[in-house]
Write a structure and sequence with these properties.
4-stranded antiparallel β-sheet; single chain; 18 strands
C-alpha cells in the first residue's frame, strides 16, 4: 500500500472526523430538522390562508398554527364561584385547542381539555377555565406554580398607578385555531363594522355589500335585515332543500351543501316547512331550490305598492312627512264621506286635495239637475297618500313575538336599521316603522304641592 501524502492524510482525517461529528450530533440535528419542517409547514399554511382570504366566500373563519405561544399572567386569572379559574382568551385571538404543552418538542407537561381545562366560547368573552390554580398548584396557599412550566416575572401598572410584579406562565398550544380578524381586515372595514370572525359576520358583510350593490329591492332588503339581526340566509346559488328538523330550542334547515340553525322562536317560510318541497321526500328534482342571499325566515316583512296591497289602510302618515297636520288628519282611511261642508267635523279644510264643491275627489260632477246622486269623497290623508306618497313609501314589519322574546337583540337591530338599511334605501323613498305593540304606563304621583295663603 503506497503512502499517502500529507495533504491526502489530512483530507482523510478531516473527512472521518466530519462523519464522526455528524453522527455524534444527530440528536441535535434531528431537533433542527423537526423545527425546520414545522416552520416550513406553518409558512405553507399562512400562504394558503392568504390566498383564500382574497375571496370572502372561501376565507376561513379561523386560521391555524401548528404551535402558538400562550402567556397566562397571574393577575388575569380569577377564581369563580363554581371553583373554576378563569382566564380571558379574547385578547389573544386563540379560539380552539385540545392540549397545552410546556415545550414544542418532547413536552414533559401536557394539560388536556376536559381533564385539566375547558374552553367556553358561548359568551361575549372567550374563556379558558382551569380546574386547578396554575399559580397554587398544590392548593395549599404556598403559591407554587405548576411544575415544569417556564415562567417569568413582569412589572404591571395597576389602575391606581402602582406597579406590581406578576408571574407569567408560558404554554405552547399545538394545532391551535386562531382568529386573525381577516374577515374584518380584508372586507369588514369597507362597511365600517367590526366583529370577531364568525359565519354570522361573513353573512353580514356579504348581505350589506349585496344590499348596496344590487339595490334595495324588497327581497334583498328582507335578507339584509335578516343578516343584521344575526339570522342565517342561504349562502350559495343552487342549494336545494333536503329537510327541516326541530327540537325544543332549535330548528335546522339542511340543504345539499350545509345546515342553517335557527332559534325555535324564529318563524320560517311556509314553503320551507312544507315537506313536499324536501329532497328527502320528493327527490332532488322536486326540491325547493334557493338563490344566494335568499332569506328563509319570516321574521321581517316588507310591504310596498306591489306587495301586500293595500297595507297603508288604517296607517298613520308620519309627522315627518306632514309636520303641520294633527294626528287625526294623518290617519289613512278608505271610507267615503258625503261631500258636505265640514264633514266629518274638523277633518276637512278648504283647499285640501280632492275637495271640490259639488264634485267627488276626482272632480267628477254627477249629471242631472238636480244631480241624480250625491257626491262622495275621501279624506285628505287618503288623497295625499294615494296620489303623492304611495309610490315613494314602504313599510317594514317585525314579528312582535320574536322581538318581545329577546331572540333578536333589539339594540343592534335598531342601530343597524339607522346606519345601514335606511342609508342604503332609495333617496326618493320613505320607510314606515310603526310601533305594533301599544305601550301604556300608569303614573301615580307621589309628590304634592303645598299652598301657603297669607292674609294681609
Amino acid at each position: 500500500m503506497s503512502a499517502f501524502s500529507d495533504e491526502a492524510t489530512n483530507f482523510l482525517h478531516g473527512l472521518s472526523d466530519l462523519w464522526n461529528r455528524f453522527f455524534k450530533d444527530k440528536d441535535q440535528l434531528k431537533a433542527i430538522y423537526q423545527s425546520n419542517s414545522i416552520l416550513i409547514g406553518q409558512s405553507y399554511l399562512d400562504l394558503m390562508e392568504t390566498v383564500l382570504n382574497l375571496s370572502i366566500r372561501e376565507a376561513p373563519v379561523f386560521g391555524k398554527d401548528f404551535f402558538r405561544l400562550l402567556l397566562i399572567r397571574e393577575d388575569l386569572v380569577t377564581k369563580r364561584i363554581d371553583g373554576l379559574y378563569e382566564f380571558d382568551l379574547t385578547p389573544t385571538g386563540v379560539k380552539e385547542f385540545s392540549f397545552l404543552h410546556n415545550k414544542i418538542l418532547d413536552p414533559s407537561v401536557i394539560l388536556e381539555r376536559d381533564l385539566h381545562f375547558d374552553i367556553d366560547l358561548t359568551g361575549e368573552q372567550d374563556l379558558l377555565l382551569f380546574n386547578k390554580s396554575l399559580f397554587d398548584w398544590n392548593d395549599d396557599g404556598t403559591g407554587e406554580i405548576i411544575p415544569g412550566v417556564s415562567y417569568r416575572t413582569v412589572e404591571v401598572l395597576q389602575d391606581d398607578g402602582t406597579i406590581t410584579n406578576q408571574r407569567e406562565l408560558a404554554f405552547w398550544v399545538p394545532d391551535c385555531q386562531k382568529d386573525s380578524f381577516n374577515l374584518y381586515l380584508n372586507f369588514g372595514y369597507l362597511i365600517q363594522r367590526f366583529e370577531p370572525s364568525s359565519e354570522s359576520y361573513r353573512a353580514l358583510i356579504q348581505g350589506i355589500v349585496r344590499y348596496f350593490v344590487l339595490g334595495p329591492t324588497s327581497g334583498i332588503l328582507v335578507s339584509a335585515l335578516n343578516v343584521v339581526a344575526g339570522v342565517p340566509v342561504i349562502r350559495d346559488d343552487g342549494e336545494y332543500l333536503m329537510n327541516v328538523t326541530e327540537t325544543d330550542t332549535l330548528r335546522t334547515v339542511t340543504t345539499n351543501l350545509r345546515s342553517y340553525e335557527f332559534n325555535a322562536g324564529i318563524p320560517l317560510r311556509a314553503d320551507v316547512l312544507d315537506s313536499s318541497n324536501w329532497a328527502d321526500t320528493v327527490g332532488e328534482s322536486g326540491a325547493l331550490v334557493f338563490s344566494a342571499f335568499e332569506h328563509v325566515s319570516e321574521l321581517f316583512q316588507i310591504s310596498d305598492t306591489t306587495s301586500n296591497w293595500p297595507w297603508w289602510y288604517e296607517k298613520e302618515i308620519p309627522a315627518a312627512l306632514l309636520p303641520n297636520e294633527p294626528k287625526n288628519r294623518r290617519l289613512i282611511s278608505p271610507v267615503l264621506y258625503e261631500n258636505l261642508v265640514n264633514n266629518p267635523p274638523n277633518l276637512v279644510k278648504v283647499g285640501d286635495p280632492g275637495v271640490f264643491i259639488g264634485a267627488d275627489d276626482d272632480g267628477f260632477v254627477p249629471s242631472g239637475d238636480p244631480p241624480n246622486r250625491p257626491t262622495y269623497r275621501h279624506l285628505f290623508s287618503y288623497i295625499v297618500f294615494e296620489r303623492f306618497l304611495r309610490h315613494h313609501t314602504f313599510a317594514m314589519e317585525i314579528d312582535k313575538n320574536v322581538l318581545l322574546s329577546g331572540v333578536v337583540p333589539f339594540d343592534r337591530l335598531s342601530s343597524d336599521l339607522q346606519s345601514i338599511v335606511i342609508a342604503g334605501k332609495s333617496a326618493y323613498t320613505f320607510l314606515f316603522t310603526e310601533q305594533d305593540i301599544p305601550l301604556f304606563d300608569d303614573i301615580i304621583p307621589t309628590d304634592y304641592l303645598e299652598y301657603v295663603i297669607t292674609v294681609v
